[in-house]
Structures are given as C-alpha cells and as structure tokens.
Amino acid sequence: MDLSLKPKIIKNGILIRLVLIVILVLSSLFILKPLTYNNYPDFGSYYYSTKNLTEGRNPYFDLGNRFGFFLYPPPVLFLFLPLTLISYSVAGKIFTAISIFCFLLSIYLLLKIINIKPFSNLGMFLSILAFNFFPAKFTLGMGQINNIVLLGVILFIYFSLNKEWIYSGIFLALASLLKVWPVILLTVPLINSRWKILSSFAAVLAFVFMITYPILGKDVYYYFFLVTLPSLFTNTAGTYYNQSLSGFLLRQINNPATFKAIRDILDLMILSATLYLTMKFSQIKNNIMLLNVSVLITLSLILTSTSWQHHFVWLLVPLFLTFSYIRKNKMNLKYYFALGVSYVLVALNLKNPSSIPVLFQSHVFFGAFLLYIFDIRLLMKRINTL
Q1: How far apart are CA 78 and CA 54, in angstroms?
Q2: How much is the pTM?
Q3: Residue 308: beta bridge partners?
Q4: Rounded distance, CA 46 to CA 80, Å?
Q5: How many Å is the Cα radius of gyration of the chain?
Q6: CA 131 to CA 25: how far, in whole Å?
Q7: What are the TM regions of this chain, as residue ranges (predicted)?
Q8: CB-CB contact of 234 with 305 (8 Å)
Q9: Distances (CA, A) of 247 to 69, 71, 301, 348
C-alpha cells in the first residue's frame, strides 16, 4: 500500500464512522418518538380488557373502551394486571418504555448472535436499518406486545446456540404464552430430540397455567380455546395492513369460495413442503439450525390468516440471520441484493395504498415470501454440500 494514501484512508474511515453515528442517533428518535404519544390503540385493548376482567366481565367479549377485540392467550391479562392500577396514559408510557427496551435489547442480542459488535460500522449500519424498519415503528406506535415476543424468540435462539437448553425452552414458552405463533419453533428441538428444551417449555406452560387459572377463571380459558383461538386461523381481512398470504389473495380474488379453495391448497402445499424440508435437513449445526428458524418464522407470518404490518417486526430475526449466513459463506453480491430487496419491500409503508395498483399493495407479503424462498434455497444449497 502506498503510505501516502494511508492518512486519506484513515480520514475517510473516520468520516464514515461519524456519518453512521449521526444517522444512528437520528434514527433512534423514531424509536423514542412513541414515548410522546397520548394514545396507544393496541395497548388500550390489553389495558381495558384486563380492566373488564377485574370488573367481572368477559375480557374477550365485552369491548368497553377497547380499540378492538382481545385476541391473546389468557396469561397476557395476568401480565397487564399491575398496569391497571394506574391511569391509562401513564400505563401506556410505561409499557412503551418497556417495549423500546425489549426492542433495543433484541437488536443487541441479534448482533451478538451473528458476531457483530454493536458499535462497529457494520453493527451501526444494521441497527440503522432496524430502527427505520416500519413494522418496528408501527409496533411501538400501536402499543403492541410484539417486541416482548421478539425478545423471547431471540433469547430462545441465543440460549440454543450456547447449548443452554433449559433457558432456551423457558423463553420460547414465555413468548408462546403471549402469542401463539412461536410454538412452530418447537419443530427444531423436537426433530433434534432436545428433550431439555421440550421439558422446560412444557414445565413453564404448566406452571403459568396453575398460577393464572385460579385467578383468571375457567370461563376465560374456555372462551379463548373454544372461540378466540379457532378464529385466529379462520378470520382474515383484505385490508392493506394485512400482509399475509390470505390478505394478498383477498385483494386479488372477489369470490369467497374461490379464495378459500386457493388459500387452503397453497397453505397445505407450503406448510407440507416446509415441514418436510425442516425435518429432512434440520441439524443442530448452528448455520443450518438458524436457517431453519428463519424459514419457520417467515412461514408463520405468511400463512397466518391475519398478519398485520406490525407483526413483521419479527422478520428482523430471519433478515439478520440470513445476512450473517451470506456474510460467513462469502457469497457474491447477488445474494446481498436479493436480501436487500426483501428488506426494502417489508420496511416500506404506503400512506395512501389505494392510490397504487392492488397488486403492489402486497409489497410486504412479496418481501416476506422472497425471503422465505431465498432461505429455502440457501438451506437446500447448504445441504447439497454436506
């Protein structure tokens, strides 16, 4: 290297770092901005549903002051009981602060999992992408519980990689008690016979049930399992914010019978193919396990009947893990380009979606499906080299 170029290279390196720091600080304002809000619609659903419970009303049925119906497992009510002791406005800000903390810790742990220092240039660049990810901002603005679930799933991955199987199962169970979808990740320890994960998962569920059942009552649990839970697999909507496969199809197909037939066939084909590949190729080797986890998370978002845009904050996990896989295997730029396209499609938000063609209103779905196909391709490519 020409020694005369060294000062220039150092100067450019410092400049790049300063630019990244400035952009990171500005981007962090997007994450902190929800603390200034006075209303958090989805948090209102948690808060007032729990209020209904304390007043002897059915939290799943009686709307009261809620933004919408309460569609979460009963333990979520138990989690929000302490917050009902204070006013809605104060409770909303406390919950938002907790959600922000969970999001920041999730990004830190994701970077740790893929061996990137948070304040390296690459670490700051990835953090900037995460902070400007619309589903993340949407989650915080709505007062959603998604970031707590995100942290639980990431801790499941983190402890699995460190062979701390009991902790891994505990955090997967905690995530599944807040949202149903993380249960699909049990596929990985199940086919790898990781009984400590499975046993700790079951133990946490049993313990929480024994604690909450006497407090919440049998009617709450019965209503959830007999009415609310089945509705999660059948009810859907064609609105822009539903970016699942069902939402995409509803925006294209007007005939309900045709929609249902096509959706059921595609759901069955995609689910069967994914589970077959996961069971056939799943190994405890870290690189393959992480690809399997990525595929399963993306699959859950695609096939769920209703995947609102804020749910796609969970897609940060497969995006980060896929980036790490490409980087570690020194793949060429076309792989980064494909991953970048997936990120952009999911990260965007259309303020006036009705102004563009209906097909393009499913950009988040297309981004998620591209990532799903991409990870399946990487998984099969990796297996062929073993």
Answers
A1: 10
A2: 0.93
A3: 242
A4: 7
A5: 22
A6: 10
A7: 14-32, 67-88, 94-111, 140-159, 166-191, 197-216, 223-241, 261-279, 286-303, 309-326, 333-350, 356-374
A8: yes
A9: 19, 18, 11, 17
Q: DSSP secondary-structure letter at 242? A: B
Question: Is pLDDT of 65 > 90?
Answer: no
What is the distance between the alpha carbons of residues 386 and 383, in angstroms, rounded to a whole number?
A: 5
Tokens (6 digits) for 106: 């999730």
- The DSSP 8-state label assigned to residue 186 in this structure reads G
Q: What is the rounded CA–CA span in Å between residue 110 and residue 318? A: 10
What tokens were used for 65? 């002051």
Q: Which residues contact 58 (CB under 8 A, 6 or more apart)?
A: 52, 219, 220, 223
Count CB neighbours of 125 within 10 A. 15
List the chain domain ranges: 1-232, 236-386
Residue 284 has what pLDDT? 47
**Which residues partner with 242 through β-bridges?**
308
pLDDT tens sequence across 199-239:
999 999 999 999 999 888 888 899 898 888 888 888 888 88
| Alpha carbons 207 and 75: distance in angstroms, whole number | 11
